[in-house]
Amino acid sequence: MKLVLASNNAGKLAELQALFAPLDVTLVRQSELGVGEAEEPFRTFVENALAKARHASAHTGLPAIADDAGLCVEAFGGLPGVDTAFYATKFGYEKGDANNVRALLEQLAGQSDRRAALVSTLVALRGADDPEPLIAVGRVAGLIAKEPVGDNGFGFDPVMFLPQFGKTFAQLSADVKNANSHRGQAARAMLALMRERWS
C-alpha cells in the first residue's frame, strides 16, 4: 500500500518507513507529489495531524498519514507543544533543530524542574473525507539534559535524557530508539489499527 506522508521532514520519513516496514507500506513524502505544507492553526497535536493528513490526501487522492509531534516541558506548562518546530523563532533565532535546542537550554537555565515528554500523534485516513480517521498516540517522559549529548536522531533527541537508559535519545542506536520512542509507540499502535480496520 502506498501512503502519502504529510510531512517533508526527512528524519520523520526515515523513522516511519522503518517502523511501517512490517505492513509492506510505502511512504511517499508529499513534496515528492507536488503538495505543499498544510496550515496548522490548532492548539492540539491531534487536530493538526488531522488537518495535515486531510490536506495531503485531498491533493493526491491517496490514503495519507500525518504525524504531529512535539516537546511538552513541565516547567513551561506543557509548552512548546504544537509550536515545537518553531520554538527557536520565539527567541530571535532562525528555525532549526540546533537553534531549538539552544533556545530550550537557555530558557531552562537555573530551572530545577527539567521534566519533559516527547509526544507523537499519528493520524491516518483512507481518503480526504474519511469520517473515521485512525489515531495513535505515543509519549515518552524524560528529563532535559544540561547540554546536548549524542549524534543520532534529530530535533530534541540530543537533550532528551531517558533515566531508564542513562542516555539521551541521540545516544541510542536507531533500533533501540525506534523500540522506545514516542514515534515508535505511536507507529506500533497505528500498525495494529491498520491491520484491524484496513486489512
Describe what you observe in this structure.
This is dITP/XTP pyrophosphatase. Homodimer. Helices cover 32% and strands 23% of the residues. It is α/β, with parallel strands linked by helices and 199 residues long. It has one domain: Maf protein. A 7-stranded mixed β-sheet has the order 2-1-3-4-5-6-7. Helix 1 crosses helix 5. It is globular, with a radius of gyration of 17 Å.
Q: Secondary-structure map with pairings?
A:
Layout: E1 2-5, H1 10-20, E2 26-29, H2 45-60, E3 64-73, H3 97-108, E4 115-125, E5 134-144, E6 160-162, E7 167-168, H4 174-180, H5 182-198
Parallel strand pairs: 1-2, 1-3
Antiparallel strand pairs: 3-4, 4-5, 5-6, 6-7
Helix pairs in contact: 1-5, 4-5
Short note summarizing the structure:
The chain has 199 residues and is an alpha/beta fold. It is built from 5 helices and 7 strands. A 7-stranded mixed β-sheet has the order 2-1-3-4-5-6-7.
What characteristics describe this protein?
single chain, 199 residues, alpha/beta, Maf protein, 7-stranded mixed β-sheet, 5 helices, 7 strands, globular
